[in-house]
Amino acid sequence: MVSQTERTGRQTGGRRQYPKTPFTVLVAVRWDLSSFEAAWLIYRVKRSALLSTMQRDKRQSGSKQPGVSENLTDTVCNHIDALFQDCDFITKITKLLVDSLIDPIKRAITDSITESVRNSLKFEIQDTADKLNELKDKFSNMEDTLDGQEQYSRRNCLVLFGVPENDQENVIDVVMRTFKNNLKVVVQPGDIDRTHRLGPKAIKRGKPRGIIIKFAHYHLRDKVYRAKKLLKGATPKMHILESLTSKRAKLLDDLRKNYKDKIAASWTQDGRIYLLTNNNQRHVLNKLSDAKKLRV
């Protein structure tokens, strides 16, 4: 029989202390120390209650010799107490528990870390994509703004193509004579701010270079541009275009190529691009980014 002190456990500072074995440490880490203490306390209480019941039954029966059941119970309790005090047994149990738990714990930790990293990467990728789209929108807006400012600076300009070229020409006289004879518009030297041929002079005479004309006043420029239809059938063949920015000129050229089977006519007015489809739908592109919304 174990003593009452051994059955109730050692006392230190009013708190019950249990053998510090690898088993108790593992239980404290895996399932929390309070749970192990509760299990130990329940076992001691039940054991004490069982012994008290057996002693009461023995007194009531008047028997002085311990019965078989009592001896068996004491033996079992003694063996259990001995096992809890046997460090070799606890070490073996601990090793079995650790061996059985280590792989699931590793997998659980790995899966948790993997999922956490995956979710973090998804968030970072989405956040980066959102910021990139925001930067693209800002860049597109800046591009529209800069292109619009450049186009406005060309507001008083027109480009005349097809006028014969010679080495001793006075470009202003050529322009005024062409406007008077072909467009029926009288232009004075003071109406033209600046004019010249575009590009370097060719070594071999070929197709004449275009002439860019910057008018002193917009209303005269607009008058000349509206009269450009009178150049149809002229000899030599001539035509007038607005002075577009390089990006607007490329955009207009790409639209004419990509939608040549769907566009009946295309032209520009004050830098805006107009498209007339085969089903008489009109589209206006005020800025470069409007092309992204175009549905022809």
Automatic annotation (TrEMBL):
InterPro entries, per the entry: Transposase_22
Keywords carried by this UniProt record: Coiled coil
Regions annotated as coiled coil: 118-152
PANTHER family, alphabetized: L1 TRANSPOSABLE ELEMENT-RELATED (PTHR11505)
Protein's UniProt name: Uncharacterized protein
Lineage summary: Eukaryota, Metazoa, Chordata, Craniata, Vertebrata
